[in-house]
Design goal:
- By secondary structure, the protein is mainly α.
- It has 4 domains: about 15-155; about 155-255, no CATH class; about 260-355; about 355-430.
- The protein has helices at about 15-40, 40-50, 55-85, 95-105, 115, 135-185, 190-215, 235-295, 305-320, 325-355, 355-375, 385-395, 405-420; strands spanning about 110, 130-135, 220, 230-235, 295, 400, 425, 430.
- A two-stranded antiparallel ribbon has the order 1-2. Strands 3-4 form a two-stranded antiparallel sheet. Strands 5-6 form a two-stranded parallel sheet.
- α2 packs across α6.
- The radius of gyration is 51 Å and the shape is elongated.
C-alpha cells in the first residue's frame, strides 16, 4: 500500500492504541451481530422458502446485502489486522509507522474489490463495483446494511410466528364447527350458515398460502420507527374470518337450542293457537247473541281460524320428526310471532263483537245506580220517575234492544231524577213539590 500522506495530523502512539482498541471492540460487536443474523430462524426460513410477491423481491435484495456485509466485514478485518501488525513491529512506533497507521485508520484505505461486489447493491446507487472507504465509513455502511437486512428478516419471521399458527387454530375450530353444523343439518346449499362455513374455509386456506409465501404482504411497519422489525402483522383478514366463524357458531348454537326445546315450543305454539281458536269461537257465539239481543247495531264479522298457521305447525312437527333442525329454527321463530298475533287478533275480535253488550250493561248499571240514588233521597215512589224508569228498563231488558233509543230513555230518567233532586222541598208536606204542571 503506497503512502501518499496522512489525512490530517499524524496520530501519536496513544491515539493509535485507543483507535485500535475501539476498532477492535466494533469488530467484535459486528462479528457477533453478523453471526446472529446468519443463525436467525427467520433468515433460515427465508432461505428455504418458495417466496412470492414483495417478499421474494425484498429477500433477493437482502441476500445481496448480507453477501456484501460479509465482504465489507472481511475487508474491515484485513485492514484491522494490517494496522495491528504495523503497531506490533516495535514497542515504540517510528514516525513512518505512525504516518502509515494514520492513513490506514483515518484515510480511505479500505478498498472492496469488484469481485466481492458482484451481484450486490452498490453504495448509494453510484453504480461503482469497486469502492474505497475509511474504517469509520465502512462501519457506518455495515450498520446500514445490517439494519435493513435485519428489519426484513425480523418482519418476515414475526408474520410467520404469528399468523400461520393462529390460522391453524382457527381452521381447527372451523372443522369442529363444520362437524357440529353437519349434525344439525346445516349444510352448504341448504342453510346460509353452511355457505358461510364453505367461504371461510376457502378464505383461510388461501390466506395461509399467501402468508407462507409472501409474509411481508401482511406486515404493517410502525410509522416513524427506525428500529429493525418495528411494526406488527396485519391480521385484518384473519380477524374478519374469525368474527364470521363466531357468527356461524352462534347460529348453530341457536339451532342446537331449537333441537333441545323443540317439543316444548311446539306444545306452547299449539296452546296459543288453541286459545286463539277458542276465543274466535266465543266471538262467533257472542256475535249470534248480539244479533239476537241488540237491534240496529253494526256487528263485525268474525273470521275463522287461519288454516295456514295450522299447516305451518304441521310442517314444523314434521321437521322435528325428521331432525331438520336448521329448517325448524326459523319456522318456529316465525310461527311464535304469528301465533301471538293471531291470539291478539282473536281477542280484539271478541272485544269488538261484544261491545254492544258492554254498552247495554253500562246503561243498565247507570239506570240502577240512579234508581238507588233516588231511593236514598226518598223519591223512589215518585210516579213520574217510576214511569220513566219502567220505560227505560223495558227497553234495556227486552230483545232485541235498540241501544240508541234505550240510551235516550236512560238519559231522560237521569234528567228527571236530577231535576227532582235539585228542586226545593216543603217540610210540612214531607216531600218535593210536583213541578210538572197540570198536563203531566
Amino acid at each position: 500500500m503506497g503512502v501518499t500522506g496522512p489525512p490530517g495530523p499524524v496520530m501519536d502512539r496513544d491515539e493509535v492504541d485507543r483507535a485500535l482498541a475501539r476498532l477492535g471492540q466494533e469488530h467484535e460487536a459486528i462479528e457477533t451481530s453478523l453471526l446472529a443474523l446468519q443463525d436467525h430462524a427467520g433468515r433460515r426460513l427465508l432461505e428455504g422458502a418458495e417466496l412470492t410477491g414483495v417478499t421474494k423481491q425484498r429477500w433477493a435484495d437482502t441476500e445481496a446485502s448480507i453477501t456484501l456485509l460479509w465482504a465489507y466485514f472481511d475487508a474491515y478485518t484485513d485492514a484491522l489486522r494490517s494496522a495491528r501488525e504495523i503497531r506490533s513491529r516495535r514497542r515504540w512506533s517510528s514516525r513512518e509507522d505512525l504516518v502509515e497507521l494514520t492513513e490506514l485508520l483515518r484515510g480511505e484505505s479500505v478498498t472492496v474489490a469488484g469481485s466481492a461486489l458482484a451481484g450486490a447493491p452498490t453504495l448509494h446507487g453510484t453504480g461503482k463495483l469497486s469502492q474505497s472507504f475509511s474504517l469509520t465509513a465502512l462501519v457506518d455502511r455495515m450498520n446500514e446494511l445490517y439494519a435493513s437486512s435485519l428489519d426484513m428478516v425480523v418482519a418476515a419471521d414475526a408474520v410467520w410466528s404469528a399468523l400461520p399458527a393462529r390460522i391453524d387454530l382457527l381452521a381447527a375450530e372451523l372443522q369442529r364447527t363444520r362437524r357440529l353444523a353437519h349434525s344439525v343439518g346445516v349444510r352448504p346449499g341448504e342453510h346460509p350458515a353452511g355457505d358461510d362455513l364453505e367461504r371461510i374455509t376457502r378464505t383461510l386456506t388461501r390466506l395461509r398460502e399467501q402468508v407462507v409465501s409472501d409474509p411481508l404482504a401482511f406486515w404493517l411497519p410502525t410509522q416513524g420507527s427506525s428500529a429493525p422489525g418495528g411494526g406488527r402483522p396485519d391480521t385484518t383478514v384473519y380477524d374478519r374470518e374469525a368474527r364470521a366463524l363466531e357468527d356461524v357458531r352462534r347460529e348453530i348454537d341457536a339451532v342446537l337450542t331449537v333441537r333441545q326445546d323443540a317439543e316444548k315450543r311446539l306444545v306452547k305454539l299449539r296452546d296459543v293457537l288453541s286459545r286463539a281458536d277458542r276465543t274466535l269461537a266465543e266471538a262467533r257465539t257472542a256475535r249470534g247473541e248480539v244479533l239476537a239481543k241488540i237491534a240496529a247495531t253494526e256487528v263485525p264479522v268474525v273470521s275463522g281460524p287461519p288454516t295456514a298457521l295450522q299447516e305451518q305447525l304441521a310442517t314444523a312437527a314434521e321437521y322435528r320428526r325428521q331432525a331438520q333442525w336448521h329448517r325448524l329454527s326459523p319456522l318456529l321463530e316465525s310461527l311464535e310471532q304469528k301465533a301471538e298475533d293471531e291470539l291478539l287478533r282473536a281477542r280484539e275480535s271478541l272485544t269488538a263483537v261484544t261491545a254492544p253488550l258492554a254498552v247495554r250493561a253500562e246503561l243498565r248499571g247507570r239506570l240502577d245506580a240512579y234508581k238507588a240514588k233516588v231511593a236514598r233521597h226518598g223519591l223512589a215512589e215518585d210516579p213520574f220517575l217510576i214511569e220513566r224508569y219502567d220505560a227505560a228498563r223495558r227497553m234495556l231488558w227486552s230483545a232485541p234492544c235498540d241501544l240508541r233509543v234505550a240510551e235516550q230513555a236512560v238519559l231522560r230518567y237521569q234528567q228527571a231524577a236530577a231535576e227532582l233532586l235539585a228542586a226545593p222541598r216543603v217540610p210540612e208536606q214531607g216531600g218535593p213539590q210536583d213541578h210538572r204542571g197540570p198536563g203531566a
